[in-house]
Amino acid sequence: MFFKKIVVVLTFSVFSFSLFPQSDGKEEGFKIGGAVRYNMLSTHYEDGGGKFNPQMTWDTWRLNVDGSMSGIDLSFEYRFYPTSDTHFLHHGYLGYAFSDNVYMKLGVSQVPFGMPGFASHSWFFQVPYYVGLEDDYDMGISFDIKPAPALDLSLAYFRQAEPAGPGADPLAGRYSYDIIPGNGAFVNSEGKVVANVPANLTELNQFNARLVWHFADNWQVGLSAQAGENYNATLDKSKLSTAFAGHIEGDFGGFNLKAEVIRYDYRALGDEGQDLDVVPMGAYAYGYAGGEGYTGGVASKANIYVAGLAYTIPVNWGPITSIQPYIDYSMVDKDVDIFHDTHFLIPGMLITAGPVYTYIDYAMGKNQPWLTDSFGKGLGSGIEDPKWNSRFNVNMGYYF
Q1: How many other CB atoms are found less than 10 A from the CB of residue 325?
Q2: Is position 101 within any domain?
Q3: CATH number for the domain that contains residue 218
Q4: How far apart are CA 246 and CA 249, in angstroms?
C-alpha cells in the first residue's frame, strides 16, 4: 500500500508540469550505430604477473538503435563481451515528450542518482560504479522535468533491476552492479566475520529523485535520494535500502572538476534472518567472491568520497583533435570497524581522433575488487594493510 501511494504521488507531480502542448518538428527515422573496443593491459597484482602479461583482449562490441516515430522515441543498446563470455542489454526504453518541460522514459534506463552522466573521467569509472551508484540501469519509468530554466528535476520508479544475460554467473550477467542472490556476511556477537551466509536477495520497488541547479557558466550542484527494497525471497521479507548523494561539477580555464559525496545503507537479510554487513552483488557475469579470512560482496553501509580533475588540450595532429589528461580518486569508508577501506586512484588521459576514443590509464587500488588476483574481495570486509595493486590499461574504441 505504501508503494502504491508513492506511485500516485509521483504520477500527480509529473503531470502537474505537463500542461503545455507537445513540441512539434521532431525528425522521424532511426539510426543504427555501435562500437568496437579493444584492450591492452599489463597487471601488477599479488603474483607479480605471468606469461600473459601484457595481453590484448577484445573488450566489447555493441549495437545501438535510436530514433523516433509518431512522437515516440526509441533508444536501445545491446552489448557483447567476448572476454567475459557474456552479452546483455545495456538499456532499452521508449521515450515521450509530454511538453518542452517533461520527458518520460519507460523501460530500462539510467537511474537518476548522483552526478548526471558519469562521476568519472577514466575508462574504469569511479568506486560508486562498483557498488551500483554510478551509471546504473534498472527497469521502470522515469521523468526528466524542467521546473525552471536553471533547474533539472528527475523522478523515477524502478520495479526491478535490468534483466540479466547469460554468463559464468547468469544472475550477474549485466552491465551495472546490482544486489543478487548469493552469499553475504555478518559480524557476530564476538566481533568476528561470519561469511558464506546464503542470501536470496533481489532489488525491488526503487524510487529515485535528483535535483540539479545550474549556475554561473557550466557549473552545477545537485542532490540525489534513493530508496527501495532488498527483498529476500526465502523469507518473503524486505529491508529498506537507501542512498543519498551531493555533487558539484564545473568547467574553468580548460579544466573540468567533478566531486561527490555518497552515503548508502544497503539493509538486507540473510536467509536465516540475520542483518547482513556484506551483501552479494555482481555484474559482467561475475559475482563478487569471498575468501579466506575476508568476504566478497559489498559492505552494506559506507560513505563514498569522489573527486576528479581533467584538462582538455585542443590539438590538430592529423585525426587527433584533443588530449585530455585527468586524475580520478575515490574511496569507500566502511561503517564496520573491523572492515578495511577501499581506495581507487586513476591517472590517465583520453585521446580523441574522430570516431576513435583511446583511454590510457594507470589504475591503482587498495581493496579494489577488479585490481587483484583474487577477484571480488575488496569491497566486502577487505584485507588489512593491502599493497597498491596496479593495472596499465589502454582501451581503444571505434564508435559509429
Answers
A1: 15
A2: no
A3: 2.40.160
A4: 11
Per-residue pLDDT reduced to its tens digit, 322-339: 999 999 999 999 999 999
CA 349 to chain centre: 21
CA separation for the pair 37, 116 (Å, rounded): 24
Is 1 part of a structural domain of the chain? no
Q: What is the largest CA-CA distance in the chain?
A: 67
Residue-wise pLDDT for 226-258, tens only, equals: 999 999 999 999 999 999 999 999 999 999 999
Rg (the chain; Cα; Å): 21
The answer to whether 91 and 222 have CB atoms below 8 angstroms apart is no
CB 298 within 8 A of CB 196: no
The predicted model scores a pTM of 0.92
In a domain, 223, yes or no: yes
Total domains present in the chain: 1
| Helix or strand (DSSP H, E) at 238 | strand 237-252
- Burial class of residue 182 in the structure, from the number of CB atoms within 10 Å of its CB (0-12 exposed, 13-18 middle, 19+ buried): buried
**Per residue in 304-317, is it b (16+ CB within 10 Å) or e — as a string?**
bbbbbebeeeeeee
pLDDT per position as a tens digit, 21-66: 444 567 899 999 999 999 999 999 887 665 557 888 999 999 999 9
